[in-house]
């Protein structure tokens, strides 16, 4: 009997030893302590974030893991993203929301609320990327004929997420998640900034040329430099190499982290949008404007100092590559790049300092 018990004990010990490596493997694959969230984690957006980190443009965050967040009804196949993550062995997991959302329930507690709270608690910051026009019903206006609504569930999800993070004047009883961690970092580009504004109760200019400059044709926009926030040459030139972007200066406004980086140099930025912020949302301050002062180019939060949105695109990888060619018009020379046109104080320095500041915000958790 003793021999049988001894044999069983040996088998149990061996089995336990065999399970240890698996436990260690699980520990190695556990999500890192420091993580950032990417909302709308398309392959392109994941690649962009990796580029910024790998090339030290977004400095000192290479040890951060990534979480990708999206709604299952978005107009994108996120299986492509999972395949990219697997093929590149990335420390990243995708989280999806399957709950029903609409313009009627995004600014209140809903079935995604617990998920938003969980993501907030698991990460140190979140990034919202560019995209299509926000449905006008989400900021209580009628839809302009120039608006293009192509991915409503993406907007419902991102608007509700940012409302939960920052709060808004649509629902003053809601307690913003950042009240529990005011140093949390929230960054938005283009649509990301517009979503930040609408989520906090702001409104939108639905077409810049028509609503701001009273212009209804591409020819007239091209004769009005201040109205050009994307490349209107592409409206009647069939050259496939033409970029959809435009490049213009921005001016600082107020006394905040972003306006201080802009300084007096009025750097050039990459722009691609036809909508813009009209009325600012709750607790949002303007940090930059277009050269004529009519278009809001950057927003910061009055209360949460690590929240910033830019109407332009500092995340575009072509801003940091000499090989990225820019062709605004059919007869442009072939050797143009952002760095050849706007190096140093003309634009490059601002973009690098911008990302340095975002890196500082994220890394404040490690100090």
Question: Can you offer a commentary on this structure?
Answer:
With 367 residues, the chain is of the alpha/beta class. It has a domain at 32-206 and 271-320 and 348-366: Class I glutamine amidotransferase (GATase) domain (Rossmann fold, 3-Layer(aba) Sandwich), CATH 3.40.50.880. Helices cover 33% and strands 16% of the residues. The strands form three sheets. It has a nine-stranded mixed β-sheet with strand order 3-2-1-4-5-13-12-11-8, sandwiched between helices. Strands 6-10 form a two-stranded antiparallel ribbon. A two-stranded antiparallel ribbon has the order 7-9. Strand 11 (284-289) and strand 12 form a beta hairpin. The model is unreliable at 1-30 (pLDDT under 50).
Entry keywords:
367 residues; alpha/beta; 9-stranded mixed sheet; Rossmann fold; globular; 11 helices; disordered N terminus; two-stranded antiparallel sheet; 16% strand; 33% helix
